[in-house]
Hints:
Elements lengths: L1 E9 L5 E12 L7 E7 L4 H17 L3 E7 L20 H14 L7 H4 L6 H11 L3 H17 L7 H11 L3 H9 L1 H16 L4 E2 L1 E5 L4 E6 L4 H12 L12 H7 L3 E2 H8 L3 H13 L3 E6 L2 E6 L1
Amino acid sequence: MKQKNSWTCDVTTGECSTSEHEVEVIKLQEMPSKIKILYYTDPICSACWGLEPYLRRLEVEYGGFFDMEYRMGGLLPSWEGFMDAANGIGKPADVATHWEELGQATGMPIDGGVWLENPLHSSFPPSLAYLAARNQSVELAQRYLRRLREMVFLEKRNIAEEETIYEAARQIGLNMERFQQDFHHPDTAERFQTERREGARFGVRGFPSLLFFSAAGDGLKVTGIQSFSTYVNALSQVLGRDVEPKFEQGPITYWLQHYPLLASKEIAELQHRSISDVEAELHALAVEGKVQVHPVNEGYYWSLQ
C-alpha cells in the first residue's frame, strides 16, 4: 500500500522531503495487552510537526483503542561531516527555506529563522530532555515535547541550549532539581541509544514512523505523513475489526481550553471542517477579544485571550 507525496524526515541525512513510503508488516517480540503504537520521532523533525493535526485527532477520536509510546530517534547527531548534496543541504542555513516550504505544504506553518539566527548543533540535547521529563510523568513529557517544538518551529528558539531546555521545563511545571539530574544522568543517555537501536531493528528509516502492534505482537509500520484514514485503517487492521471514532465535538474555544496553542489546521481536523471555515470563525472571535491570533509565515496559530 503506497501513497505519494508523503513527507518524511530521513534518519540518515536529516532531510525532510516528499517520497513514496509503504505500510510495512513488522513483528513485536513482547506481547502487548492491547493495541500499542510506538511513535518514532525527534524534537526538530519538521515532518513530525506537520503530523500533529492527525496525531491529535487520532488520540482524541480513537485513543480508547490503543496506548501510544513516544520514542526518540536522533535526527541530527551533529553538523560535523554532514552533507546532503542531492537536496542542497550542507549547513544549517540551508534548512530554513526547507522548513518553511514543508510548513506551507502541511498546513502547520514554520518559521525557519532559527537556522539563520541561532542554529542548533544537534537534536540530541532536546531528545535527552524529553526522556528526562518522561521520568516524572508521561503526560508532562508530552506537553514538554510540544512546548519544545513550539519554541523551535514558531519562536526561532534554539532548543539544544540548556537555558532553553530548562526554561521549557519550568513552564510545564516539571520538578527542576530532578529534571536537571536526569537530563545529565548516564542512564538517560543509555536509554536514548537503546531507543535508537530498537528503532533500527524495526527498520525505522525516517520520521515520523508509527508502529501499530496487535495483542499478538503483529504490526504495521506507517512512515511519513499519510492521510488520516491510513492511520485509522492501520489501527483497524491490527485490531482485526473496524473501529468507530469517539467524536467529542464542541466549540472552537473548547479545544483551546484543552490545548494552549493550536494551528488552524489542528482545529480544522478536530472539528472536521475546512481551514478557511475555522479561520473565519476564529478571526471573528479575535475581534470579540475571545481568542488571540499568532501569525507565522502566512499561517495562524491560536490561543485563548
